[in-house]
């Protein structure tokens, strides 16, 4: 049976796996025929293989993912996430609002990330 606790646990695990950067492990949280639309309005990726391919862009990045807020109701969660990546001399930060739906087993059936390129903040790393 799906509960808000199960949803919150899956969302927290999603953030942890984002930070670990293993696309296969992230995709394993999704149902077989799930969809990802990141950012909302972009092409929809459908199915675990397409979802794993999408998240493979994170592999090898120095990335932190901090879950800021989670709200769950019924089969849906909305959450605010801070993602920081460091590449070379730059640090990039974004705080999308993600909306996920879940099946009765707690697997993600859809994810839409609400953000635009204007929301990404790029800064030079300070030299110390």
UniProtKB/TrEMBL annotation:
Keywords: Isomerase. The keyword Isomerase applies. InterPro entries: NTF2-like_dom_sf, SnoaL-like. Signal peptide: none annotated. GO terms for molecular function: isomerase activity. Residues 11-110 form the SnoaL-like domain. This is DUF4440 domain-containing protein. It comes from Amycolatopsis rubida.
């Amino acid at each position: 049976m799906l509960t808000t606790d199960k949803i919150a646990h899956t969302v927290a695990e999603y953030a942890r796996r984002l930070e670990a950067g293993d696309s296969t492990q992230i995709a394993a949280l999704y149902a077989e025929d799930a969809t990802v639309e990141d950012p909302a309005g972009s092409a929809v990726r459908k199915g675990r293989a397409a979802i794993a391919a999408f998240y493979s862009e994170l592999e090898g990045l120095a990335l932190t993912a901090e879950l800021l807020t989670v709200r769950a109701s019924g089969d849906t969660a909305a959450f605010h996430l801070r993602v920081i990546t460091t590449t070379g001399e730059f640090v990039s930060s974004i705080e999308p609002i993600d909306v996920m739906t879940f099946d009765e087993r707690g697997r993600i059936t859809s994810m839409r990330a609400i953000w635009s390129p204007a929301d990404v903040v790029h800064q030079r790393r300070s030299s110390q």
